[in-house]
Design brief:
Blueprint: H1 3-20, H2 26-36, H3 42-55, E1 59-64, E2 67-71, E3 78-82, E4 88-91, H4 97-106, E5 116-119, H5 122-131
Parallel strand pairs: 3-5
Antiparallel strand pairs: 1-2, 3-4
Helix pairs in contact: 1-2, 1-3, 2-3
Amino acid sequence: MNNKRNTLQRQLILNAVQELNIHATAEQVFAHVAKQHPAISKATVYRNLSQMAQSGMLLDIGNFAGAAHYDHNLHNHYHFMCESCRRIFDVEADFSDMYDRLGNIDGFDVVSHNLSFNGTCRKCKSQVLLQT
């Protein structure tokens, strides 16, 4: 495979994740890239997203509503998914003491973690209150 083409494709996909800024799925990334570059295939998008997550260029934040979601925000943070609107929000919190606790209590050597919360976001909660 031509490395320049692969680099261009990766950059297009990375740009799409950043521009969407919504913890995008592969389908959302593909739709975004295909608007300007219709020759790109879904397989290329899926493969590159997976490779970028494995290499640390993106975070695979896990499956929400049946699809893997990707995040360009690489600093330590967590996620909240609203069960009403299905949006995913960044959560800034510090659970770093859990690493020590897991190591001290259970003997685990933690190298990474993924923590997410589910519930109702502020906007959806206020809409429910307005309807009652």
